[in-house]
Amino acid sequence: MLGSNPVIEHAVDVCVIGGGMAGICASIAAARNGAVTMLVHDRPVLGGNASSEIRMWICGAHGKDNKETGILEELQLENQYRNHGLNYSVWDSVLYGAVEFESGIGSLLNSTVLNAESENNLITEITAWQLTTQTWHRIRAKLFIDCSGDSILSTLTPAEFRVGREASSEFGEDIEPAQADNRTMGNSLLIQMRRTDEPQTFIPPKWAYKFRKPDDLPHRIDGVNGHNFWWIEVGGLNDTIRDAEAIRDELMRITYGVVDYIKNRAPESEKAANWAVEWVGSLPGKRENRRYIGDYTLTQNDIVSGGKFEDIIAYGGWSMDDHHPAGIYYPGEPTIFHPAPSPYGIPYRCLYSLNISNLLFAGRNISVTHAALSSTRVMATCALLGQSAGTAAAICIAKDIPPRALSDARLMNELQGILMDDDCWLPGLTRRVDHLATSAMVTALEGNPGRLVDGIDRNRNDEPHCWTGATGSYIEFRWNEPVVVRGARIVFDSNLSHGKQMPYSYPQRGSDSRVPDTIVRKFRIEALGEDNSWNVVFSDDNNYQRLRRPRFEAKTRAVRFFPEATWGSGVVNVFAFEPLHDAVKHDPVTHNGSEFSEARGRISPDDLRPPSKSSKESKPALARPA
């Protein structure tokens, strides 16, 4: 199979397949928790549906203070700091840097997984073809995490999976059809428009479809500003993998026809006169295909009941957003937003394979029904699932146990504790606070400092869980006897009402491309010396992150935290400040910093050559509804 092309061998702890938001977060989480990790991605840029190639904004849980944090929030805050114009190429670079310069991660971009070897219900290795270097890469790993969306390992291994819509009777889901089928939600090509100061002409290509009247696009056209035309969707009546090329071609004809209609034929078209095409995608974004089967399958009813699981490792909160398989050819509403509570819990048992003992998965391919997928598939939820899977994999590597073993209550408690410590909120659980912080007397010049150690790092149901004060104020932790403090954990207010999303049209409607003004920009930490003088043990005058873990060491009877300036807010909100007796975790800000000379687990490319080109298959016809 490999021909004369050389093969590069890799041996790692964890291999993550797929570099969308789930795969990025899985890779970073696994590496930061001690696992040597390889990320294999089949595109030149990271981000999947959120990348510059597709440009879908990152959606997640509805509701006040429900925004997803953890690694996702870290990446989005980096983008807010660096990318004031909200440019997609800069966003690509944020994701690239987060993976490429994170210690312990090697990455293979432009690399497609073509083969997998398995024995005794274990995946032993995968083989990937890197297009740009024309090389083969054979990767052996102890654990594999499939974040490819389309579950690439499901057809290369005996892993059990399902496709399409379940019959309503199978799980008692009333939004499913009476009979099961293989229909899915379709693919979309997105458009970005830019408003200018003068009229803009648009001449469509001859091959574009002609939409001549509103009835040709029922329930679809609702203006230009603030829309990415997600409803330009087809493919759910076909196979969104096997028929991907034909689906893309059809979407191209539809997309340019829609722009032609908006610019040249739509009623009141003068409203679009000054709008020009900024960008049209060429890579469709996918919503659905294969879903793995795990020890548990999340259903519509689990979501409606709030997902009260003992093994909760992530949460959702998007409506059950079920697109009709016919897409744009369906004359009714393009999607139905079935209500879902926000938040609802997602169990760990949905993240590992029922029958392959070293396979985890995260993203839109987890063990859910079609109905549940319509909510869990959005990218902010997928990012949380990725961080959970990566963290779980690292624990399994450290303890030399399979993923299923983490379902044990004691080990699950450990996984949940690490996730919450890494700022992944788990609804219904309270984070364990370091005993060094709980054993201290906590005082402040103003406000309620007890909230800093209550184990809840966001406001809930209008109940505050943050200390509020003014710049120049301080918080003090004092002990009866000298203690050794080896760092601190701090959670600032990054404004969880702000989605921090990339734009869908220009100028950006209601977008704020700055660091949230509620974040503390400048702060210092002081420790009381033996001579009763206060010594600065850590300071930062350019913080823009929510979670910080500054490391220092001091033997002291007291520590003070001084917020000195914010990014604009007149008050300071801090959700957590706790001195640590053992600062095991690195501060993310310094952990993936700019010292590029350090060894960062990069995979050095050796040599390889590609296989012979396969014959091009004829394009299948697209199915359309009667």
Task: Annotate the secondary structure layout.
Elements: E1 7-17, H1 21-32, E2 37-40, H2 70-82, H3 88-100, E3 105-108, E4 111-119, E5 122-130, E6 135-146, E7 161-162, H4 168-171, E8 187-188, E9 191-195, E10 233-234, H5 244-264, E11 275-280, E12 291-292, H6 300-304, E13 312-316, E14 320-323, E15 335-338, E16 344-347, E17 359-361, H7 370-376, H8 379-399, H9 409-421, H10 435-438, E18 441-444, E19 467-469, E20 475-485, E21 488-492, E22 520-528, E23 534-540, E24 547-548, E25 554-566, E26 572-579, H11 588-591
Parallel strand pairs: 1-2, 1-6, 2-3, 6-17
Antiparallel strand pairs: 4-5, 5-6, 7-12, 8-10, 9-11, 13-16, 14-15, 18-20, 19-26, 20-25, 21-24, 21-26, 22-23, 22-25
What does this 3D model show about the protein?
- This protein is an alpha+beta fold and 626 residues long.
- It has 3 domains: 7-165 and 287-421, FAD/NAD(P)-binding domain (3-Layer(bba) Sandwich), CATH 3.50.50; 187-280, no CATH class; 435-591, Galactose-binding domain-like (Jelly Rolls), CATH 2.60.120.260.
- It is 19% helix and 24% strand.
- It has helices at 21-32, 70-82, 88-100, 168-171, 244-264, 300-304, 370-376, 379-399, 409-421, 435-438, 588-591; strands spanning 7-17, 37-40, 105-108, 111-119, 122-130, 135-146, 161-162, 187-188, 191-195, 233-234, 275-280, 291-292, 312-316, 320-323, 335-338, 344-347, 359-361, 441-444, 467-469, 475-485, 488-492, 520-528, 534-540, 547-548, 554-566, 572-579.
- It is globular, with a radius of gyration of 25 Å.
- The two termini are 43 Å apart.
- The model is unreliable at 592-620 (pLDDT under 50).
